[in-house]
UniProtKB/TrEMBL annotation:
Cellular location(s): Endoplasmic reticulum membrane; Golgi apparatus membrane
Superkingdom as given in the UniProt entry: Eukaryota
InterPro entries in alphabetical order: Rab_GTPases_membrane_traffic (IPR050209), Small_GTP-bd (IPR005225), Small_GTPase (IPR001806)
GO molecular function: GTP binding; GTPase activity
Stretches with biased composition (Acidic residues): 266-279
A GO CC term assigned to this protein in UniProt: Golgi membrane
Region (Disordered): 189-240, 266-291
Membrane topology type: Lipid-anchor
Family indicated by similarity: Belongs to the small GTPase superfamily. Rab family.
Organism: Zizania palustris (Northern wild rice)
Protein name, UniProt field: Uncharacterized protein
Main location: endoplasmic reticulum
Length: 310
């Protein structure tokens, strides 16, 4: 699906606050009540519309455990938006917000839009943090605030889209320079007429060339469990929605080990967009491109991991 802009998000917060559930509700419109803890990172994507422009959200859901903080910090770089999440029924998750916010502002671009979300507002009878406390914290730190429920979907859509609108406004006001990849924004094929910047996705012909190069790699390198095994799998593709899982299965893994896998996932997404544009221009229909198949081709027998929650 062609887009005018691509915005990169990161979801952060303590373990168990519902980060993965928020992502799943937004991308797949469903709630999974039983989850294992997220290990490493998960990746989701969805198309939305901002000011009549198609915008692709690329969302990184991170593990909340302290042992994975070094990995989480590596994903702040190049993120245009962040969803900082706490659980309104667990006071300690609210008390840790200052630490998460300090990390975000230390490692991310100064222009990153941050949304504070008090999750699990459907459990108001177990509330340990008042709405007013969340609102006060947000005002003191210059954040946008909203309570939400990943279970009932209350305010989930609004939280992600409101963050996107804040990013879009920064672009229109000239605060975000879209030519800088570090800002977490890319211009797509539909966005070149909206901006004088020349960054973003390449032409469909370039995408086809990149795909051919990607597929022509022989003797793919195998990554075993002792080094790090990662897989990205499309779990749902319906209309303009999609969600992928990138799951680390080797305990605490150095961030530099993850970067090649992340790059493959992003390259495959770009190639898929280029393929769809080619199909549209040629009025032809073909079999859907499989991101997981491309990753397995490049990495050998990568370990498939189920989607998990925060």
């Amino acid at each position: 699906m062609s887009f005018a802009y691509l915005f990169k998000y990161i979801i952060i917060g303590d373990t168990g606050v519902g980060k993965s559930c928020l992502l799943l509700q937004f991308t797949d419109k469903r709630f999974q009540p039983v989850h294992d803890l997220t290990i490493g990172v998960e990746f989701g994507a969805r198309m939305i519309t901002v000011d009549n422009n198609p915008v692709k959200l690329q969302i990184w859901d991170t593990a909340g455990q302290e042992s994975f903080r070094s990995i989480t910090r590596s994903y702040y770089r190049g993120a245009a938006g962040a969803l900082l999440v706490y659980d309104i029924t667990r006071r300690e998750t609210f008390n840790h917000l200052a630490s998460w916010l300090e990390d975000a502002r230390q490692h991310a671009t100064a222009n990153m839009a941050i949304m504070l979300i008090g999750n699990k507002c459907d459990l108001s009878h177990r509330r340990a943090v008042s709405y007013e406390e969340g609102e006060k914290f947000a005002k003191e730190h210059g954040l946008v605030f909203m309570e939400a429920s990943a279970k009932t979907a209350q305010n989930v859509e609004e939280a992600f889209i409101k963050t996107a609108r804040a990013i879009y406004k920064k672009i229109q006001d000239g605060v975000i320079d879209v030519s800088k990849e570090s800002e977490g924004v890319k211009i797509g094929q539909l966005g070149h007429g909206l901006s004088g910047q020349s960054g973003g996705a390449g032409s469909s012909s370039q995408g086809a060339q990149q795909k051919q190069k990607f597929r022509s790699r022989s003797k793919p390198k195998h990554i075993d469990n002792d080094e790090a095994a990662a897989a990205a799998e499309s779990t749902s593709r319906k209309q303009q929605e999609s969600v992928y899982t990138l799951h680390v299965v080797a305990g605490v893994v150095a961030a530099e080990v993850l970067e090649p896998v992340v790059a493959l996932a992003e390259d495959a997404e770009a190639e898929e967009d280029a393929d769809e544009e080619d199909d549209h221009q040629d009025h032809q229909e073909g079999a859907p491109h499989s991101l997981l198949a491309e990753l397995e081709l490049a990495h050998g027998a990568a370990v498939r991991a189920p989607r998990t929650g925060s």
